[in-house]
Amino acid sequence: MAKVNIVRPGEGEILGSGAQQIRILENGEHTDHRLGFAEVTIPPGTPSPLQHRHA
Predict the structure, then answer these.
(1) What are the extents of the domains in the chain?
(2) 13 vs 2: CA distance, rounded Å
(3) 50 burial via Cβ count (<10 Å: 0-12, 13-18, 19+)
(4) pTM for this structure?
């Protein structure tokens, strides 16, 4: 059975400050570095790159 890593609200590494933040939910440590996952908070009207992915 696969292990599950749970990141609760208020947990995870936070990058940035103020209204723009990135919260790291999975840095690859639990997936043999095959997958990383982050929650990005960007206020409305903020210029940002289009959705994309990194191979």
Answers:
(1) 1-47
(2) 23
(3) exposed
(4) 0.70
User: What single letter denotes the amino acid at residue 4?
Assistant: V
d(CA 3, CA 54): 24
Place of tokens 């939910």: 25
- 49-53: which pairs have CB atoms within 8 A and are 24 or more residues apart? none
Contact (CB, 8 A) for 15 and 21:
yes
Tens of pLDDT, residue by residue over 7-32, are 999 899 999 888 889 999 998 888 88
Cα–Cα dist 48/5, whole Å: 29
